[in-house]
Amino acid sequence: MMLLHLHLAYIATWTIHGAYLTFLAVKHARLKRELQKLETKK
Amino acid sequence: MKPSLVIFSLLTLGLLIWGFDQAIFVAPTEATMGNIQRIFYYHAPSGITAFACFFVNLAASLWYLKTRNLRADALALASAQVGVIFCTVLLITGPLWARPVWGIWWTWEDVRLTSSLLLWLIYVSYLLLRRFSHAGSMPVLAAVLAIFGSVDTGFVYMSIRWFRTQHPQPVLFGDSNSGLAPEMLHAFLVNLLAFFAFAALLIWMRYLLERKQQRVEELHALAAVGGAR
């Protein structure tokens, strides 16, 4: 159980950080597209 | 992507790999708890990093209240979001460590545990307020909520010094009996540095995105004014 919990803790940590990095990447792509559209209109 | 951001990302990645190596392969196995104690090298730095993020959030909120500067507002949002991420890691790794060592996942009678959960809830509500309120006064309300949150941050830090409940006493900056073996302290400090760098990187990236978001909103407002004419 000890090693399982140790592995789970490290996996959970990097899953959370990975999910947040993915969120940032998706938000970046969406904002970049929207900004380009708006600046072309202007 | 800015070259400085790329360089800092690579440096942070190097630090994180070094930290992982120190925690898993280099640090000695703790005599009483065995290998499960290695969670400490992620658990404690995550908590300290969350506190640091919430401190940046407090500073940015006060800056915003004083100047109404949108850069301050963007920094406040970025630091709170990253702080919540690290606080989530803290709240997940804690019970995973507690179960094999204490025999329980969680206890509501422990002041450190419950005040940490409360801290997480305060900053989650801060983010929800920012996400779902569109009133003009939202950044001011959020900044005031951040000040309340910072009070709990101080309380969480001091709780294991003020109350003797389930959570262990501090191993660093505690009384004369506290402390770590030099190899353990080294592994801990490397991970703390790596997590600080990683948090700074995430805040930087989130800040840049929020500035972009502000620009989009500004252009939408200009388009709306232009359309109304």
Q: Please provide the count of β strands of chain B.
A: 0
Total count of helical runs of at least 4 residues of chain A: 1
**What is the global morphology of chain B?**
globular
C-alpha-based Rg of chain B, rounded: 20 Å
Query: Rg of chain A, please?
Result: 18 Å
* End-to-end separation of chain B: 37 Å
The proportion of residues forming helix of chain B, as a percent range, comes to over 70%
Structural class of chain B: mainly alpha
Tell me which protein chains meet in the greatest interface and how many residues each side has.
A-B, 25 and 32 residues
Coarse structural class of chain A: mainly alpha
What is the count of β-strands of chain A?
Answer: 0
Q: Strand portion of chain A, in percent?
A: under 5%
Spans where pLDDT lies below 50 across 5 or more residues of chain A: none
String of helices and strands of chain A: H
Look at the structure and give the mean pLDDT of chain B.
92
Main beta sheet strand tally, sense and closure of chain A: none
Topology (SSEs and partners):
The complex is a heterodimer of chains A (42) and B (229).
Chain A: H1 2-41
Chain B: H1 3-26, H2 40-67, H3 70-102, H4 111-132, H5 138-162, H6 182-228
Helix pairs in contact in B: 1-6, 2-3, 2-5, 2-6, 3-4, 3-6, 4-5
